[in-house]
Design a protein that fits this description.
The chain has ten helices and no strands. The chain has 246 residues and is mostly helical.
Length: 246
Amino acid sequence: MPPAVALAVVITVWELWTRIADVPVYILPAPHVVLERLVSDLGFFARHGAVTLVEAMAGFTLGSVVALSGAVLMAHSRLLERTLYPLALLVKVTPIVAVAPMLVIWFGFSPVPNVLIAALIAFFPVLVNSLTGLRSVNPGTLDFLRSVDASQTQVLLKLRAPSALPFLFAAFRIAIPLSVIGAVVAEFFSGDRGLGNVIFVAHHNLDMPTSFSAILVLAVMGITLTVVTSIVERRVLFWHDSFVSP
């Protein structure tokens, strides 16, 4: 209720200010204008939104798989951690806006650059949290498994993986919205589909109602993905202390 009230207040002030100050539509459209534009061409925004969603989820999946694989390797070898972690950090600090045009040149105007950008931006949070979780195990339990001659695979599946799940879902809540951002940024440079391209074209045409409508769809998409992640987390981690009622 409090967020809903705060959002209603913001929208009301926004609407009143655009009416009282007679703000031009090409600078800041009123909320009712944005809503009318969205509803009048809902299929258009749904079609481009679906493209962005697929690219973002494909990138998130690719980035998470690579990050998890790297985290498992580094959790079992300090040498590999010292070797691979600086490379992962290099990926993190490299501006995505600088990488996107190069990927378009290499892979052409196709969904591939968009998926790769989404994967790159989702990669680092999943890697760091996964590595932290895989190493945050109970020392007594680890010594016990080693005393009964448990294999590395058994230790991973029985101890390290369950310990890493809370960290992993925390990373997912960060990485999933970031993957959407990555797909949108990539769409600024490649192809003629997706909400990123819609925003880019609308901006150059001073079509602010279309631009704001696309942003609204992206906001709803990000909120929905975050809520779905939280629901799945609660179902999977029902046994964890953070979800057990006192």
